């Protein structure tokens, strides 16, 4: 199929680095207790997902975990899920490679309920590849790729800027007290562990609700018995 270069040129747009804000956040799940981590913004009176700007030289996944801790006091760890992604898979990938990972992940979940690693985070299941797959969308492979992103003009920037927020899946134990550096009473954010079945409906922004729904769907596909 021939490429329409003129159409590509018309649809392509340029945003300079100083006019682009990269923010990173998480949908952090406690599978054992069927909870999702939210923040209550006391200034705006709305529920949101934890997120914030990445630092120079920081990778996005690390930024997401750091911002989650800074806004909530919760030490989340990256949660490997079967996330459909356009990221290029390794050469050993097979579309059928994860046939047995649901069982493996369920084993991890059962272990999490009875024997956590200190944070209550389940260890990540693994899988063995059998054949190569060349697909536009890679599915069925456990990874820590981003769940999705939302973008919008940043209303708080004095200079016009487009904000792009990348969300990653995280895992944490909702029964562990907040760590040092968590939000204090006088600060504008409160940490909230919401029931997984209610979390999406609580969020003010539809895009964030869609991210939560996708995270729970990906978790279920990966063997975690999440509701919602």
TrEMBL record:
<protein>
    <recommendedName>
        <fullName>Nudix hydrolase domain-containing protein</fullName>
    </recommendedName>
</protein>
<dbReference type="InterPro" id="IPR051325">
    <property type="entry name" value="Nudix_hydrolase_domain"/>
</dbReference>
<dbReference type="InterPro" id="IPR020084">
    <property type="entry name" value="NUDIX_hydrolase_CS"/>
</dbReference>
<feature type="domain" description="Nudix hydrolase">
    <location>
        <begin position="27"/>
        <end position="81"/>
    </location>
</feature>
<dbReference type="GO" id="GO:0006167">
    <property type="term" value="P:AMP biosynthetic process"/>
</dbReference>
<dbReference type="InterPro" id="IPR000086">
    <property type="entry name" value="NUDIX_hydrolase_dom"/>
</dbReference>
<dbReference type="InterPro" id="IPR015797">
    <property type="entry name" value="NUDIX_hydrolase-like_dom_sf"/>
</dbReference>
<dbReference type="GO" id="GO:0004081">
    <property type="term" value="F:bis(5'-nucleosyl)-tetraphosphatase (asymmetrical) activity"/>
</dbReference>
<dbReference type="Pfam" id="PF00293">
    <property type="entry name" value="NUDIX"/>
</dbReference>
<dbReference type="GO" id="GO:0006754">
    <property type="term" value="P:ATP biosynthetic process"/>
</dbReference>
<keyword id="KW-0378">Hydrolase</keyword>
């Amino acid at each position: 199929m021939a490429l329409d270069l003129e159409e590509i040129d018309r649809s392509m747009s340029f945003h300079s680095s100083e006019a682009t804000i990269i923010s990173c956040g998480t949908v952090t799940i406690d599978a054992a207790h069927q909870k999702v981590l939210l923040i209550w913004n006391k200034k705006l009176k709305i529920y949101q997902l934890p997120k914030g700007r990445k630092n120079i030289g920081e990778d996005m996944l690390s930024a997401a975990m750091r911002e989650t801790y800074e806004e909530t006091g919760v030490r989340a760890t990256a949660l490997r899920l079967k996330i459909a992604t356009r990221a290029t898979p390794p050469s050993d990938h097979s579309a059928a490679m994860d046939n047995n990972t649901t069982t493996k992940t369920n084993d991890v979940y059962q272990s999490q309920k009875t024997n956590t690693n200190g944070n209550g985070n389940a260890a990540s299941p693994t899988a063995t590849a059998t054949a190569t797959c060349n697909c536009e969308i890679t599915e069925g492979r456990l990874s820590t790729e981003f769940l999705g992103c939302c973008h919008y003009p940043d209303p708080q920037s004095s200079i016009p800027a487009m904000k792009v927020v990348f969300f990653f899946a995280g895992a944490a134990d909702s029964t562990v007290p907040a760590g040092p550096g968590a939000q204090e009473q006088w600060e504008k954010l409160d940490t909230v562990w919401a029931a997984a079945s209610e979390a999406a409906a609580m969020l003010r922004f539809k895009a964030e609700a869609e991210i939560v729904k996708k995270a729970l769907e990906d978790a279920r596909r990966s063997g975690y018995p999440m509701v919602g």
